[in-house]
Write a structure and sequence with these properties.
By secondary structure, the protein is an alpha+beta fold. The chain folds into two domains: about 220 residues, no CATH class; about 150 residues, Alpha-Beta Plaits, CATH 3.30.70.270. It is built from 13 helices and six strands. The protein has a four-stranded antiparallel sheet with strand order 2-3-1-6, with helices on both faces. A two-stranded antiparallel ribbon has the order 4-5. Strand 4 and strand 5 form a beta hairpin. The termini are far apart.
Length: about 375
């Protein structure tokens, strides 16, 4: 294959791989992804900057007698200072508690600095390549190769940064070396380019795996906290949410927990079938969500038992009205396959101040109220 064909294929491969790495992150995992990227970058960036400082120092010592002071002192000094400074900065940040916006800005600064360092290193390498003796001109690409690949490995969680560093730093040198007359230098350029492409593919693959892992983790979390039939919270999720609303100082003064038990559900389930029972439970969930859109959490505890928690001000003038509205809504007909099914629901509610709330006593008190209502027969009157 001629020289032009090699360069054309190299450019085409870089373009295709870079395009493939423009991964679209699902909106639901972007926050988790940002946290994971920040944590990984915070752990690895000090390593890459420290490595960059060491390689710059080694490169400076190897250039004695072959490079001008600019390359022997100034540029290595630049990489050394930047490397040590940024390594210390990120090391000090390791325990910082920062907002999502701050995390995003810090990662963006890493991206920009990576581009700047890559451009400076690429220019340094090209100039050194053209202005040194034959035996020495491959040293600069080798040092750049080491820095670029160390950076790509440490920045795997930031694919655009890692790929940009590789392309900006390596592409000019690889193209020049592939176009050289010396077969040895040309072979080295082709080797560098091939390994760079493999690194880009690895970065893309690792990032895709990271996103897939976050999606799976989120799906498992949803499954562990959600009732699979109704989509409401399950008992475990309700308990966690209750703790959260108890810690929220900006909510209302009172926490109210309402237990709901369906009257006649077992009979309807036996008479019309389990599919009808599932349809009833789904309709109950929809009615509760429509009636109580401001509830902190609505959950299905299992079977035909539901519970909701809310924060409200004391006193709550609409509390009794809402309970009556819920009884009326639960007593309205349910439909499945053209059949009308009539059941009702019993409610039990317990309240306490938010700063002294405990779930178990509230549930026990609400359960006692629920069975008092069942015995009184208020639901038949509501129906």
């Amino acid at each position: 294959m001629d020289k032009g064909g090699v360069l054309s294929n190299l450019a085409g491969s870089i373009k295709r791989i870079a395009s493939a790495c423009s991964l679209r992150v699902p909106p639901e995992v972007r926050g988790d992804l940002l946290n994971l990227q920040y944590r990984r970058v915070g752990a690895m960036v000090p390593v890459i900057y420290f490595a960059m400082a060491i390689i710059a120092g080694v490169s400076a010592s190897a250039s004695v007698g072959h490079f001008s002071l600019t390359y022997h002192i100034a540029l290595p000094g630049f990489f050394l200072v930047v490397g040590l400074t940024r390594s210390i900065v990120w090391y000090r940040r390791r325990n910082d508690q920062v907002s999502q916006e701050q995390k995003s800005k810090r990662l963006q600064s890493t991206f920009i600095l990576g581009l700047v360092i890559s451009m400076v290193g690429s220019g340094w390498t090209l100039d050194a390549y053209f202005n040194t003796e034959e035996a020495r001109r491959v040293l600069a690409p080798i040092f750049l190769f080491m820095i670029s690949f160390a950076g790509a490995i440490c920045l795997t969680s930031l694919p655009r940064t890692a790929i940009s560093v590789l392309v900006i730093a390596m592409a000019p040198s690889c193209i020049v070396m592939i176009g050289a007359q010396d077969i040895g230098i040309r072979a080295m350029g082709i080797s560098f380019a091939a390994i760079a492409l493999m690194m880009i593919a690895m970065v893309a693959h690792n990032f895709a795996e990271m996103v897939a892992g976050l999606k799976l983790r989120r799906e498992l979390k949803i499954l562990s906290e959600t009732d699979p039939l109704t989509g409401l919270a399950n008992r475990r999720s309700f308990e966690q949410k209750f703790e959260e609303i108890c810690e929220d100082e900006d909510g209302g003064d009172i926490i109210a927990v309402t237990l709901i038990d369906l009257d006649g559900f077992k009979k309807a389930n036996d008479e019309f079938g389990h599919a009808a029972g599932d349809a009833i439970l789904l309709q109950v969930a929809d009615r509760l969500k429509q009636l109580c859109p401001d509830a902190a959490c609505i959950a299905r505890f299992g079977g035909d038992e539901f519970v909701l928690a809310e924060r409200r001000n004391d006193p709550s003038p609409n509390g009794d009205d809402r309970e009556q509205a819920m009884r009326i809504a639960l007593a309205m007909p349910y439909f499945h396959d053209g059949q009308m099914i009539r059941i009702s629901g019993s409610l039990g509610q317990a309240t306490c101040r938010w700063d002294g709330a405990e779930l178990s006593p509230l549930l026990k008190a609400a359960d006692e109220q629920l069975y008092i209502q069942k015995s009184v027969g208020q639901n038949e009157a509501a129906a």
